[in-house]
Design goal:
The chain is an all-alpha fold and 135 residues long. It has 6 helices and no strands. It has one domain.
Length: 135
Amino acid sequence: MPDTTKWTPYILAILRIVTALLFLEHATMKFFQFPAAIPGIPSPLPTMILVAGAIEVITGLLMTVGYYTRVAAFIASGEMAAAYWMAHAPQSFWPALNMGESAILFCFVFLYLAFAGPGRLAIDNAAKQTSLARA
């Protein structure tokens, strides 16, 4: 059996980047109606949606580049937990019926990233190398 552990940090980075870009897409749908508007969201956006979109933009960008990944992922995980319980769970107990699967997946992937870190290909790693070089 080949040793695949050397690829683990790279696959973690790919998971972080792809998930963060998908998360960021939700913000672009709220603010720019790109690639499409979110159905049923009024204009102007309610304050709660504006705050959610701001969290998605900031944490999505931070996680994409791998800067303050753990903090950003923890905040994004909390937002998705709140979104699930506030918007999806009241509709039905079953995630397939309340359309909450993506909120659950985002929540737990971000929670994992908060503990696992950014993997390779992250600004966090470059910052760590710089601080180690100074010591």
